[in-house]
Amino acid sequence: MIRQLLLALSENERVHAFVLRQRMARRAARRFVAGETLDEALGVVDRLAAEGYLLSLNLLGEKTTSPHEARAATDAYAEAATRLRGRPVDCYISVKLTQLGLDLDTDLAADNLRRVLEAARTDGRFVRVDMEHSPYVDRTLEIVTRLKAEGSDALGAVIQAYLYRSGDDVDRLLKLGIPIRLCKGAYAEPSSVAYPRKQDVDANFIRLQQRLLRDPACHAIATHDERLIQAAVSMVERENIPRDRYEFQMIYGIRRDLQARLLRGGHRVRIYVPYGTHWYPYLMRRMAERPANLAFVLRNLLRG
Ligand SMILES: Cc1cc2nc3c(=O)[nH]c(=O)nc-3n(C[C@H](O)[C@H](O)[C@H](O)COP(=O)(O)OP(=O)(O)OC[C@H]3O[C@@H](n4cnc5c(N)ncnc54)[C@H](O)[C@@H]3O)c2cc1C
């Protein structure tokens, strides 16, 4: 119930505009967002890299409504790739295709993604295309497979375990040699396309996770769910899966204790580091995942 409400609010433009004006809300967002500028984000990247983490940098933003905005986001990613050049950090780039213009034109989004890939390629950096709402899944996978066919190897996709279709998508991506990040899925989806019950999502996650861990390529297990992570660790140990054949991924600011524990256990852990001024929908999705975060944000607002 609260989850549905928060997810609905994440798409409400008036609430969005109101919250962005609140200085205290901006401060509260800092728990999950590395900063509003690229400089602040790079500071966080350098610090976490020094602690031994792998990183993934994401400029917050989605559903751009003009080619101009989509180009500005593309330029910002190209700048991030340029600024990462020569830095001794394993940090790749995560993008959302609606940020690059997917709502306006599929080819525009594909062209913009090509530009991000070119900027990242100079330094041998990988680019991951995040997965958004279910109506975008076909077009997102179509663009990723198209660019892969053009020769973009350092490009990966995301699979959401809550979708019924994900087993088939995993088969297709594995055949094409496209690296996958597996997550549960963060959006409000109807029961016609997604498992409504958490236990079914988790069961599907386990099934898909097993397939990814047995694949010879390196895939990512993106969750903070200790039970699912423990299942992955047990399988890795039982089947002697080399540590460079998988990585765990978690979000900046969430379950830092678990991130550190996995790192100490010798696993590769990549932190998803978001930055930028468009943090509102992202923050609302994080609160929907764990309504206790709402209390944290409200406490900050009241303290201010
Ligand atoms: C690296 C990464 C990339 C992602 N990329 C995408 C993507 O491209 N598309 C997409 O739809 N989704 C993406 N997600 C989000 C994902 O789909 C889930 O919504 C999110 O990870 C919460 O699910 P969970 O697997 O952590 O499990 P849950 O069952 O939601 O949570 C398990 C436990 O983790 C902790 N936890 C989870 N979320 C929070 C939170 N917000 N605050 C505090 N504690 C929390 C709690 O202890 C909770 O009990 C990504 C997640 C990660 C980690």
How far apart are the first and last residues' alpha carbons, in Å?
28 Å
Q: What sequence of helices (H) and strands (E) makes up the elements? A: HHHHEHEHEHEHEHEHEHEHH
- Biggest pleated-sheet summary: 8 strands, parallel, barrel
Q: Supply Rg.
A: 18 Å
Predict the CATH topology: TIM Barrel
What is this structure, in a nutshell?
By secondary structure, this protein is of the alpha/beta class. The chain has one domain (33-278): TIM Barrel (Alpha-Beta Barrel).
Write the layout of secondary structure elements.
Layout: H1 2-9, H2 13-20, H3 23-29, H4 38-50, E1 54-59, H5 67-84, E2 91-95, H6 106-121, E3 127-129, H7 137-149, E4 155-160, H8 166-176, E5 180-183, H9 198-214, E6 219-222, H10 226-238, E7 246-251, H11 256-264, E8 269-275, H12 280-289, H13 292-303
Parallel strand pairs: 1-2, 1-8, 2-3, 3-4, 4-5, 5-6, 6-7, 7-8
The chain binds flavin-adenine dinucleotide (FAD).
Q: Can you describe this structure?
A:
By secondary structure, the protein is α/β, with parallel strands linked by helices. The protein has one domain (33-278): TIM Barrel (Alpha-Beta Barrel), CATH 3.20.20. 51% of the residues lie in helices and 13% in strands. It has helices spanning 2-9, 13-20, 23-29, 38-50, 67-84, 106-121, 137-149, 166-176, 198-214, 226-238, 256-264, 280-289, 292-303; strands at 54-59, 91-95, 127-129, 155-160, 180-183, 219-222, 246-251, 269-275. The chain has an eight-stranded parallel β-barrel with strand order 1-2-3-4-5-6-7-8, surrounded by seven helices. It is globular, with a radius of gyration of 18 Å. The structure holds flavin-adenine dinucleotide. Flavin-adenine dinucleotide (FAD) binds at residues 130-131, 158, 160, 183-187, 222-225, 249-251, 254-255, 272, 286, 289-290, 293.
